[in-house]
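Page 42, continued from yesterday. The earlier attempt failed because a stray header line got pasted into the input along with the sequence. Redoing it now with the clean sequence only.
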Amino acid sequence: MDAVLKSNQLSQLQSFWNLIQASDESVQKGLLRLLHTKYPSEKVMARPAGSSFFALKGILKSKGDTSKDQQMIDEYLKDKYEE
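This time it went through. Structure tokens are written below.
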């Protein structure tokens, strides 16, 4: 991310990350597959065994607010389905 994120964008990213952290391993693996499909790497880089996406679980955990997360989900669903 080259540019500085705005407060709302950062809040959305933190909420999304909290949802990922709260999901089970099969959902996280599915998300990882989707990300690799959407953003394939141009080069296959040699990585240490411990640097996978799943090894990061808990390391980047944010101080999220569950009520704010639920509010953002509710707003999204309202905007999407109550047009």
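Notes: Helices lie at 7-22, 25-38, 66-81.
Reminder to self: strip header lines before submitting.
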